[in-house]
Amino acid sequence: MRRLLICAGLALLCCGLPAAAQGDSAKIKVVASFSILGDLVRNVGGDRVEVAALVGRNKDAHAFEPSPADSQRVAGARLVVVNGLGFEGWLDRLVRASGGQVPVVVASAGIRPRAGPVDETRFHQDRAGADPHAWQSIANVRRYVANIRDALTKVDPAGKGAYAANAGAYLTKLDALEREIKGALARIPADRRRTITSHDAFGYFADAYAVEFLAPEGLSTDAEPSALAVARIIRRIRSEKIPALFLENTVDPRLLQQIARETGARIGGKLYSDALTGPDGPAPTYLDMMRHNAQELAKALGG
Q: Which of 50, 110, 180, 258 could form a disulfide with 27 if both were Cys (CB 3.0 to 4.6 A apart)?
């Protein structure tokens, strides 16, 4: 009888624990490949997930080198979310090092990729492969959100309703943001809708919002641009009177600063392509990043 009373007391004590004390250990551990993807997972997963990004804020995913701690992080996850389209060249070896047991979802699945540069009117040496920067189009990010929702539901069926509600709320925010971006960019005259960035990361943005981006570096930041590429950029700036150049937070600014000095084009500010900023920066979330980029472009190119 005494044992029964003790067990009953322990059961009552456990039932009386605050939800927060029991809930943290039950969260679904998700590893995202980089900061932008991590933000999308947090918005869809909400309170049910604990998210870690392998490539952190203000860090270059193209130059990332996984560590043993990263393989342990992957091994301890219930789900790994990656961009795909060749963006994470280091992914296969990292998954193998972790034991290869964790499900991996490709957030860009179902998106029709842009082809990499294929002709001599471009300014760098990329000549093949898909452009991986699909998140630069809000239309594509709607697909990311749906893929993340479905992947989370598969590993955590009990959270299906929460994931569907979170995804729906976020899609509403994306719709409002797209209207805002189009309104901001509409102020740019047709003959000023071109600019220079460090690497070729804004092709999807260009297709979606009719702003042309030129870059001395290719789809990845891990190769030096050729002298011919830089010379072509300089000639184009001078002949077309391109009004502004933009730096990026993950790329060495010195080349664009040199081009600006040689051409007289001004540095219009900083755009965010492959990584979010810290909480105190202008682009701590995907929504903030896209809004900031559109506002900076409208301000520098609007005349």
A: 50
Is 29 inside a domain boundary? Answer: yes
**28 and 172 co-located in one domain:** yes
Using alpha carbons, list the distances in angstroms from residue 248 to 175, 196, 251. Answer: 26, 11, 6
**pLDDT (tens digit per residue) in 166-182:** 999 999 999 999 999 99
Same domain, 170 and 242: no
Residues 189 and 113 in one domain: no
Contact 77, 105 (CB under 8 A): no
Q: What is the DSSP letter of 52?
A: E
Among the candidates 176, 211, 242, a domain finishes at 176
Residues 6 or more apart whose Cβ sits within 8 Å of residue 59: 34, 35, 250, 275
Residue 2 lies in a domain: no
Pick the closest to residue 123 from 199, 204, 208, 205 (CA basis): 199
Q: Per-residue pLDDT tens for 100-133?
A: 889 999 999 999 999 865 433 333 334 447 899 9
Residue 209's domain comprises: 183-301
Average pLDDT over residues 152-173: 98
Assign 83 to helix, strand or coil: coil
Helices 286-301 and 35-45 cross at an angle (nearest 10°) of: 130
Asked if residue 36 belongs to a domain, the reply is yes
Instruction: Judge whether 7 lies within some domain.
Output: no
Structure tokens at 79: 């789900």
**β partners of residue 248:** 271
CA dihedral 98, 104, 107, 111 (to 10 degrees): 120
Q: Are strands 244-248 and 28-34 parallel, antiparallel or unpaired?
A: unpaired
